[in-house]
Every structure is written in structure tokens, then in C-alpha cells.
């Protein structure tokens, strides 16, 4: 695997409320976590950092040389632990009241990737030059779109497009989507906050990831720059993980 990791405050926000974490487990599996906090002031920052810490701490201490369903179980427990911690902090400290965060966590193996997802951060796979979205946004606007009440174009500019219907830390119990996919040599996984996808079209993302002349590092940098060029209205964070055909880990 080859890995590139980026975060950028953007051009409008005073604080970067995104957090990312990366860990190689004892068995060799790679764990990547991305969180986009909400709550204003420093609350969103705290929520995302705590969520990433808790997920990595949990998964770093369990055996991950296990089957797909067992990985899903462990991811569910990890995100549940993060939810407990963030929810407790939000309820015990006035300055953190109402804070929460998206969480996108993934366990990478040589032949599969297993994800846990809450919120509107997204996972994509580029497979044979085709970009496929793997996650479903847990937003009010996405519910309207799925029920045919608004179009895709209307969803992009809807005044409530950032309203989450699911987040880590906002309720005592959180519902988590669990996804598993096979992957193989030359596939690229993109994990990103909505600071990228709200600014850059899927077509431009796909074209960037498909470019055979750029390194993975250059692709990561270009995605950040595309979001900035479009206005950079939010924090932008991403992982690019490319399957190289072997189990050696290489940071781009």
C-alpha cells in the first residue's frame, strides 16, 4: 500500500475542526480514521480529535487478523466507544454542549477494506478508472434527494445541505453504517471530509485520481488545491491509499 494524507484549514474558517489518524496494527493491517467536527468555537475540534483518538486506541488494542464480519464488529465497538466519550464530554462541559463529529474509519487488508461510517465524510474507490462512492451521506438534504423531493443540483446549493441526521457524540447511541469491499492492485481508496466534496465535482476527483502522470502525493496536493481554487469554504482533509500489489506500506 502507498498512502498520502492531507489536511488544510481552507480559506474561510479560523479553526481546522477536521482530524485524521493513521495506525499500523500489530498484525500489519492499516487503520485510517477521518473525522469532521461540529459545534463551533473549539468544540468541533475537540469532538473530532477525541473520536479519532478513541477509534485508534480501541482498534490498536484488538486482534485484527480476523474475518470480515469480525472486523465490522470491532469497528462498531470502536465507533461506539468514541460516541460514549464525545457524548459524555459534551454533556459534562458547558463549552462543549451540542458538539459532535462525523467518523469514517477503515481497516485495510491485502484483499479487502472494511469501513465504519457516520455523517457526511465520504469514501470512494477508483477501480479501473471508474470512481465509485461507497458511503451514503447521513444528511437531511440526502434524505430529501433519495425521496425525490429535490434534485442533485438543488441538493448542492440547498441552505440546509450541511445538516447531519447522524453524528458521533450528539446522542447516547449512534447508528453506524458498516461496509466491506474487495480491492486489488492499482485501486485507490479516497477518504475525505465534505470540505473536498462540497467544492470539487466527482468528475474532477475521478479525473485527478485516474491521471497516470501524477504520483499519489501529487494527486493529493491537486485535490486540496482544487478545493481551495473553488473557494475553500470549509476545512479539507483526505487520505489516498493505493493498492500496490504487496503488503509493504509506503507513505507518499
From TrEMBL:
It holds the Pfam family PP2C_2. GO terms for molecular function: protein serine/threonine phosphatase activity. It comes from the Bacteria. PROSITE patterns: PPM_2 (PS51746). CDD domains: PP2Cc. Gene3D superfamilies: PPM-type phosphatase domain (3.60.40.10). Residues 2-243 form the PPM-type phosphatase domain. NCBIfam families: Stp1_PP2C_phos. This is Protein phosphatase. It comes from Thermoflavimicrobium dichotomicum.
